[in-house]
Amino acid sequence: MAEQGTFRAGGDAAASSPAPGVPVASGARRAPFGARLREAMLTHGPLCVGIDPHPALLDAWGLPYTVAGLEKFSLTVVEAAAGHAATLKPQVALYEAFGSAGMAVLERVLKESREAGVLSIADAKRGDIGSTMAAYATAWLSDDSPLAADSVTLSPYLGFESLRPALDLAQETGRGTFVLALTSNPEGASVQHVGGHESVAKTILNAVQYENLRKTAVASVNTVSDVPENRAKRAPQENCDQIVTKGKNNTLGSCGVVIGATVSDALSQLEINLRGFNGPILSPGYGAQGADANAVAGVFDQVSGNVLANSSRGVLRYGPDVSALRSAMQRSGEELSAALYG
Ligand SMILES: O=C(O)c1cc(=O)[nH]c(=O)n1[C@@H]1O[C@H](COP(=O)(O)O)[C@@H](O)[C@H]1O
């Protein structure tokens, strides 16, 4: 049973040898994803801009629902985000819907994000058995793949260890993973809440915590909540700096989780206390799904410095004008910074 008030890594140490079939990455080693993400969040704030090219949004932008429209929409978002957002999260399903031509657009989106210096999260929600998982890992996380992203979302419901090829390849290539834990949709509860106080969600969170401890020796992340006396006094940017300077080894791990901004009741019902959690927390639900910045801050009170809040439709509805998109990103970023760090 987890001690109340702290987040604990669960389970015994598992063997760290890579699963058979894990591909070997080529190319120069880059800084770990967690460190790169931390830096991007310090520079641009905790907003992740989702690229979700829904038919209705393309229509609202005056674009046809074609491959050309998909490309124009996506590259406009990349252009607007360059220098203004920490991360971009293209929703892979909406490219897959166009078949191979859509996936070619996604390749270009990932390449242009990289060239624009914006970290990418391929929202592919992949998960499968070992050898198949190794192929997914190659596709999203190896240096020479046309679909290589800085990180990818993963579904752990074939067992957390089935993700091993992706977890290990991400570590090897300086990339990251976000594992679904408590998703923002109401249906998620029927699986993720099973087990009550020893829930499936808690098992996943503990596995990710342990993965980061094992991989990066990140002992624990000092969070904003460690310095409550200073919270009210600082501007958002200074507050971010404080998160880093408060502890020298408070780097984020490169294995993150997905926890919706809509799940605050679930955290208390399931007795999950995130304080001390050591990975980034991708949190969809802000914006179009109804959570405002204060709600995000309320859910993640204990770990505000780890949170990367996603907004897709909430920002995208301001297009196609690039400066209007940028203003929306800036407004959301400032609102989130104030709520999470202020
Ligand atoms: O992994 C995700 O990003 C994700 C997990 C989750 O629990 N809920 C969730 O909405 N998402 C994704 O986040 C995006 C949310 O979009 P908006 O609701 O338009 O901001 C979509 O691409 C979803 O697929």
Automatic annotation (TrEMBL):
Cited NCBIfam families: pyrF_sub2
EC number in record: 4.1.1.23
Q: Which gene encodes it?
A: pyrF
Q: What is this protein called?
A: Orotidine 5'-phosphate decarboxylase
Q: Where is the active site?
A: K125 (proton donor)
Q: Does the keyword Glycoprotein apply?
A: no
Classification via CDD domains: OMP_decarboxylase_like
Task: Extract the PANTHER family matched here.
Answer: OROTIDINE 5'-PHOSPHATE DECARBOXYLASE (PTHR43375:SF1)
The chain positions of domain Orotidine 5'-phosphate decarboxylase read 46-328
So what family is this one in?
A: Belongs to the OMP decarboxylase family. Type 2 subfamily.
Identify the pathway: Pyrimidine metabolism; UMP biosynthesis via de novo pathway; UMP from orotate: step 2/2
Region of interest (Disordered), residue spans = 1-25
Q: Which organism is it from?
A: Kocuria atrinae
The record's top EC class is lyase
Q: Does the keyword Lyase apply?
A: yes
The protein's matches in InterPro entries, at most eight in alphabetical order, are given as: Aldolase_TIM, OMPdecase_type-2, OMPdeCOase_dom, RibuloseP-bd_barrel
Keyword vocabulary terms for this entry: Decarboxylase, Lyase, Pyrimidine biosynthesis
Taxonomically, which superkingdom?
Bacteria
Pfam families in UniProt: OMPdecase (PF00215)
